[in-house]
Every structure is written in structure tokens, then in C-alpha cells.
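Hi support team,

I submitted a single chain yesterday and got back a structure, but I'm not sure I'm reading the C-alpha cell output correctly. Could someone confirm the output below corresponds to the sequence I sent? I've pasted both exactly as they appear in my results page.

Thanks,
R.
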Amino acid sequence: MTEFEKQFKEVQELLHFEDYNQTVKRLIDFTLDTEKIEYYKKTNDF
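Hi R., thanks for writing in. Yes, this is the structure output for that exact sequence:
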């Protein structure tokens, strides 16, 4: 299993348990990991 697949599964589990605060936090973490301003803007819009 790749790192992306592990992270994707983690987010799916958070959504399954309706843990939306933690889901958003993880999405922000993933965005920051990209170090790309275009993704920062999209996440901020979200």
C-alpha cells in the first residue's frame, strides 16, 4: 500500500465516523505537505 493509499484510507475512516473536524485538519496537513500555493488557495476556498 502506498503512502497516498494509507492517507486516503485514513480520511475515509474519519468521514465514516463523521469526524469532520479531524478530516479537515488532515486535508490541511496534506495541502501544506504539497508546498504549492495553488493548493493552499483551493483548500482555503474549501
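A quick pointer for reading it: The two ends are 28 Å apart (CA to CA). Let us know if anything else looks off.

Best,
Support desk
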